[in-house]
Amino acid sequence: VVIIGLLILLLMIPMFMIENLISERGRTQKEAIDEVSEKWSLAQTITGPYLNLQYPVVTENNGEKKVSIKDLILFPDELMVNGQPVSYTILKRSIYEVNVYQSELTLKGSFSSEELKKSRIDMDQLQFDRAAICLNLTDMRGISEQISITLGDSVYIFEPGMDNRGIANTGVHAIANLSELKQNKKLPYEIKIKLKGSQSLNFIPLGKTTRVDLKANWNTPSFTGNYLPNNRNITEKEFSAQWQVLNLNRNYSQVMVDFNTSNIKDIESSSFGVNFKIPVEQYQQSMRSAKYAILIILLTFGVIFFTEIMNKTRIHALQYLLVGLALCLFYSLLLSFSEHVGFNPAYLLSSALTIILVGGYMFGITKKKKPSLIMSGLLAILYIYIFVLIQLETFALLAGSLGLFIILSIVMYFSKKIDWFNE
Q: pTM for the complete prediction?
C-alpha cells in the first residue's frame, strides 16, 4: 500500500508536465489569435459621436493675466445604432481558428444645447464656430471606407486622429461651425461606417437614450459589458439583439467640463456589446479533465490491488507504474487529438485507446478475463463520469460530490470482504 501511494505521487510529475503542456498550447492559440487580429483589426469599441467645444479661461497670477483654452464635451440626446447583418469569417493560423467580422453600422440621433444651459459655462464663451465632431474607434485599421457625418443640412468628412479634442486618442474628428446650437435648435446627425474587427463589437452609451440593434450570422454569441440586451433571439444560424440604455443607468452626465482620468474610466467601464465566441474551448476542457487524473489513477490502482489480493495474483510495482503511465498518456492523446477533431471526438477516441491498452495489459498479467473486464468497465465508467462533469456547469459540484460518495461506498463495500489480518 505504501509503494502504491509512492507510485501515485510519482505519477503526479508527468501529470504536472502535461498540465503545463496544455497551458502552453493554450498560450500558443492566444498568440495566434492575437497575431491574426492585429493584421485584420482588433476588437472594436465605438465611442461617439460627441462634440468637443472649447472656451477661454482667464487666470491671474501676481497681477499678470493668462488665457488658457479648456475643453467641454457634449454628448448627444439620442444615439441609435443599427447594425446591418454583421458577417463573420473564420481565418486560420496553422491549426488555430480566429473569428473576424465585417459590419455596416448606421449611427443616428441628435444634439441640442439643452444640457449646455444647465452647466456652469457661459454659452457665449463657447467656440461653436470651431466645434469638433468626434468619433473614437479602437483600431483604425478596421475602417473600410471614408466616414462622413450628415449634421443638420451639412455634410462633414472626418479627418484621421483626434487633434487632442477627444476622450481617447484613437479615432476620427471633423471641425464644423455649429452656431445653430445657440438658437436652441436640435441638430440631427447620421453616420454610416463600414467597420472590420475581430472577436467582439462593443458600444459606449453616450446618448440620453442609447438604442443598439444588432444582427449577425453567428449562433453562439456571448453578450458582454455592463448591460445585457433587452431582447434577444438566437437561432441555429444567426442571432439578433436589442439594447436600450438611459443616461440614468451610467455614472456620468451629458456635459463634461474639464474631463479627467476618472471621467474616462467611467465612460470606458460603461461599454456593452457582443463577443463572437468560438464555442470550442478544448484547452480549458482538457485542463478540467486533467484535474481528475489523481482520482482515476487512485481508483485504478485500488482495483488492481483488490484483484491482486482476491485472486491471489502477484502484480509487480513496475506493472502498476506502467498502468499509471498509460493513464497519464490519455491526457496527452486527448490534447493532441482535440486540436484536430474537437474535444468530444478526441475524448471518445483517447478513452477507447486507453481502456483497450489497460484492459489488454491486465489480461496479459492475470491470464484471466474477469479482472481485465472489470478494469475496462471501471475505466469506461470513470471516463464517462468525468466527461459528464466537464459538460456540467451549474450542477458540477453536486454531481462530483455525489459521484465521489458512491465511489467511496463501493470501495468500502469490497474492502470489508477482505481478511486484512490473514495473509
A: 0.76
